[in-house]
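User: What would this chain look like folded?
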Amino acid sequence: MIKKGITRQIVLHYFIVVFLALLLVEFIFMLAVQRYYYESIYNTINQRITMTNDFKEPLSLVNGAEDGNNLSYLLVNLQLDNTELQILDLNGRVLASSTAFESEHAVLQTSDISQAMNGNVGRWVGRQPITGEQVMAVSHKLDLGGENTYVVRYLTSLDLVNSKLLVMGLLAAAVGVAVLSLVLIISIGMANSIVRPINNITAVSAQMARGRLDVRVKGNYKHELGELASTLNFMAHEIVRSNQIKDDFISSISHELRTPLTSIKGWSETLDSGGYDPEETRIGMGIISKETERLIGLVEEMLDFSKLQQNQMKLVKGTVNIREIVQETMLNVWAKAEQKQVHLKLETDETRAYNVHGDGNRLKQVFLNVVDNAIKFSHENSWIFLSVKEENGQIIAAVQDTGIGISEEHLIKVRDRFFQVNHQNGGTGLGLAITQELVELHEGTITMQSELGSGTTVTVTLPAVAEEMGPEESVTQSGDTAVPEERAASDTKSDIEKS
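Assistant: Here's the prediction, encoded as structure tokens.
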């Protein structure tokens, strides 16, 4: 007995389908064979009936003879082998018979007789009332002229045919049983070929659910089962990778949090002890303030990422000029760039307003993160080129540096959450993940191209909106803004000095 499960269901369904198909085929086959045999018998008798027309002329010569002589003459000349011949009057009474099977003067009322009286060749299949034997009767009317009109009825037994049909039926049933047995064996093998891999995959997934993420589904499975096994293995690999990234993140963020907290705690205790001159106190308070801002930045970055993951980030959208956002970003990172002796240059058309529909603060956060990363991974005395342009209804803002670049291995992972190429550089590894989420919230895209040792180009593409600025609203900041340490004479120089 097959236990309950997929195996039993598959075998049962296959068995039922094949059984019903075989039953239908054998029924049609036996019906066709029976029809063939019965039609053969009928056609043989019918051919004999058509030959009775040849006897009408000689029979008419004996019309003057006694009726008994006519009947005897008919019985002799119309006889058919293995068939009883009966001569009936128009009332269905048996006048003569080639055998004693039906007594003379008996009245028959089968359908073949009524059909024959109507001028047709009648046929009837049924059982003899006396013997119960199944027979076929074929009748037709024979008109010899005058009052000599008879019904000639041929009666033949179907027992021999039925016995042959029974043998054929038993043979067909035996073939059906053999076919069903073969189907049963094949379906069990087929079901096991499906169920065994499923059981293996289920066992492996149960181990993974218990925390055994080092196990893998083994076996060269095909089609959907192979895809399922590959997906499960890939899922386990990604979980292990995600856990490793989270562990690295926890280690990194713990270090990032501990360092400023240590500085704050140390200077707080030092200042609390008293006895320091105002200059040292000012330095200590400055360090406390700087480290506090750093902590706030780390916490805000994690809060932003949490909001994005929970779809709770709310944007205050309006018409935003991307060129102005990029220029403000350059002013914000000016001090950091100058400290590292990195030069910033903006290339754009100052006469155009590159407007998008978005949240200005969040878009500024995007470009601050991109430009800050470019400065962080750039060499001293290198250049960072920023550009803003419009193509095919899209605002394209690019940040290109000539820094250390990113390898192909890391480039595909750099926008994953918690991922950091170099953990010694600090940070949470959430910056680019947040940046991508924010850009996608603005229905835009962000792409990265990089070559190890040659630099990186980050391109942000956003849908543009129609310009609605009048002449009095045009931006007055320089289109080609150079912000190197020599402070070239331009409108941006005065803006930086005022800030």
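The chain has three domains: 15-163, 223-309, 318-498. If you want, I can go into more detail on any region.
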